[in-house]
Specification:
about 290 residues; alpha/beta; Inosine-uridine Nucleoside N-ribohydrolase, Chain A; six-stranded parallel β-sheet; 11 helices
Amino acid sequence: MKKIIIDCDNTFGVEGCDLDDGLAIIYALGTGLCDLLGVTTTFGNNVLDVVYPNTVRFMKDIDHSHIPVFDGRTDTPENNKAAQFLVEQVKKYPKEVSIIAVGSLTNLYHAHLIDPTFFENIDELSFMGGIVEPLIICDKILNELNFSCDYASAYHVLQKGKNIKIANANICLDGFFSKERFDLMENSEHAFLRWLKDQGQYWLLREKNCFGHDGMYIWDIYAVATVLVPELFEDNMAEISPCQESLKTGMLLGDGEKVKVNFPRILDKKAYEDHVYEMFKNFAILKR
């Protein structure tokens, strides 16, 4: 079992906010391949005062309230319970913990400030964020929303981190979950899948209204899957050169020092979507 921590800006069920963080947590647990040590919360999709209590509620809703949830703070590392938890777990399990960060990178930067050896003792880092070219969906240019939220922290983490995988927003467009998949849940024998389908309706409607497509991009699952099921991907090593100025828009190619990272690419888009759906079903089965 791989030890992981998910650092997220979970707004599953919050009106007008993305639900992909919650789907990523469900996916991770559905694989049966990880020991989720805890969930740390940060800002991004919404402010911390929304994200943290929403994540506590969400973990209760999916019957996993035994998994601890920690509040990230932005003022000082000493006040950041999420950062303190990250440091404690990495010290407890050196070279064993993978951290999957799918919101702003404030907690990780604070963890490094608490313990300068923090990044040296992590197994791997997997991020969802950043762009390498304009992010365009259905002829609309979108803003990057993770690294740019706290570009200074993102810069330091990308410079100091080791063994980094990045599901940048551009390659995440390969990870689409169709409305047809959600519709399959409606008549499922599993109450959880019926609940999940119902909970996803608001975001499916939003995607249809904004972009005209039937389905949604499941951004954050991409970062989790690269850690837990790497055989679904091919490695794509690349050099990035972020600087604080470029990261204000999430751009990973700037005037900064070059950093080697992995941009894993999905091998088979249909197989990937099939797999994600099966993990949702598996979560429902394990939950019984």
